[in-house]
Amino acid sequence: MTYREKKDLINVLSATRYFISNQEEIQKRRLIRLQEETKRKKENLLCGIAFNYHDSSVSFALNNKILLVLEAERMFRKKKKRCDSEEMEELILYGLNLLDKDVDDISYWALETLRNPWLEEKDTYPNPPVWRDINIFGSHRKSLIVNHHFSHACVYLFSSFDKATIFTCDGGGDKGERITIYEGDGLNLIKQGIDVDGFITAKPYDLCATYLYNSPMCEGKLMALAAYGTPQKKYVEKLEELLPILCTTNYENGDIVLSKSFPGLKGKASLLNTETCDFSASLQDVFVRHRVEDTKKIAETFKNKNLVLAGGGCLNIEANTEIWNTHNYDEM
Ligand SMILES: [Fe+2]
Questions:
Q1: Is the pLDDT confidence value at 9 over 50?
Q2: SS3 state of residue 56
Q3: Partners of 140 in the beta sheet?
Q4: CA-CA distance, 14 to 35, in Å (whole number)?
Q5: Ligand 1 centroid – CA 324 distance (Å)
Q6: Which residues surround ligand 1, an ion (CB under 5 A)?
Q7: How far is the CA of 146 from the centre of ligand 1 (A)?
Q8: What is the number of domains present in the chain?
Q9: Distance from the CA of 49 to the center of ligand 1, in angstroms?
């Protein structure tokens, strides 16, 4: 073999080795890309957002496993915190940082409707939920839009039930909605068209607490205060009479109505006197009785043996206990 032939051979071998190593590098990169894609397909990072009135929050899940729930009031150290758009982005980024992820790692978004500034008016009450491309962090992101009471009703999905009647009650959702009934069947939730006009909502509790404490969202405090009082006929009868108004009216009108009917009680909760305690106990009595009656109507209409209570109105322990003791539900 001549020198020239040897050199040519070396050149060919070098070229082949380069080709092979280059191919290996390409293959390796392809493999990594494939692994990442596979990983992305298998592991959908989900982000759920709720602005609401007084309890903004963000949650993250990997497929069906909840990874993290951030309550704005804890993060911003302000009770009853409601985020604006910038604060919500801050909360999301804080969560992503904890999870060592970034915005583009999120596969799907779920946006709850109540007071959500990222939604157009037409999307503020979807029923059932709808998919939309929503501008989040400067890009269009695939987002499921979920109305407030549907979101409450989805608590059912955390229960052990295959089927259940779901009864939501709160002080106010989208477009003033305060009571809904859903039938849960497997993963499906179907809203029921039952007339709930005469049902008690959590609004009277909200208005009376606001009146008694002269501060909004004091329902929990009033529920505790009620334990120190005794229901009084004069308060019970007046509250019963006012229920149709108190179930639906706004704060301004509620304050006027309550000031006329219960003069002298406004802002007096801190006195812890007989009047404020008895007034609270009377409201509690009215609320519990109506909740039990309303649940009876639900039980008569829907023959399901399982009941799910959801929404702020279902944080009333005494009402829930009475419902449990009164009805023949297998499970609640
Ligand atoms: Fe609610």
A1: no
A2: coil
A3: 135
A4: 31
A5: 22
A6: 170, 311
A7: 13
A8: 2
A9: 14
